[in-house]
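just leaving the lab so this will be short. what follows is a protein written twice so to speak, once as letters and once as structure tokens for the fold. can you read through it and tell me how you think this chain folds. anything you notice is useful, everything is just below:
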Amino acid sequence: MASTPGALTKVGTIAVPLLALVVLALTWKRDLPGPVVVLVALCLMGAVLAAVHHAEVIAHKVGEPFGSLVLAVAVTVIEVALIVTLMADGGAKSSSLARDTVFAAVMITCNGIVGLALLVGAWRAGVANFNTEGTVAAVATVATLATLSLVLPTFTTSKPGPEFTGAQLTFAAVVSLAVYLLFVAMQTIRHREYFLPVTRDGEVLDEEAHAHPPTTAETGLSVGLLLVALVAVVGNTKGISPTIESGVEAAGLPQAFVGVVIALLVLLPETLAATRSARRDRVQISLNLAHGSAIASIGLTIPAIAVASIWMDGPLVLGLGATHMVMLALTVVVSILTVVTGRATLLQGGLHTVLFASFVFLAISP
């Protein structure tokens, strides 16, 4: 499972994250000319490939679903730090950045990554097989967290606009974190077997228990390099974010599209890892990554934003507009119908891919 990405050698998986971190340190909070932006972008892509490799080494050591959880949580924690930093630096224009980025993460994971994984898995095996119990539970968790945190603020009346009051935001933060921890406990302890890959006959595959794992030293090195790679990914994304914002503004696109681009970049490691798992006919691992990232994105971002709002000035817009609520509702319905049988064809993968394309198109042309 811990195979090295084709674009990077074994030495490259060590050197590239360190190089990306050095570039981040040299360019932090500086105005970057065009050639430097290109260099930063290349380092970002290399760090993404390295992050996928090291996440797979760790996953091989600890087994599923712990491996998927490691990558999802690591990316989300640093993503939250990026959102808070950009909101602190952006002033009033960033009041909806948390909402835009979190909603984009949900659409990318639940439609983009899921759709791609199902297309790859069904194309190779005819039908993509996964565990119904765990996947349905994950979809239900995403739907609950997204509704409580992103839909309700549009309809609450204690404060004008799509915002929570302080008490409401505190409640949403506590509930989001509690639901996230409950899901993780079920995924890793109580019902771990629900999140393991299955065969076409429905037999659970706990193949990590029989594969030869990497040594403790190799795993420790990968843990450190994974963190370095993810810091480099998110930090360099922030470094080129002014270029992204300028490009979005020059193209006449909505400001909310910045959140979409940031989420796409930050979620690249999960996207590549999910695709590689689907190619191995381990679609359940792909779904663990996708839904786990969506759950972590909401369950960890909302509490962090609630704490950060104590010292940040300006409004905090969390409520979705009508178009995005329709997209979220359609995503939930299609996701349930996709996972309830434990089997998916190219059709289901195509539907999720179309929903993702629709989200991107509407973000460009609302």
The first helix runs from residue 10 to 27. The mean pLDDT is 84.
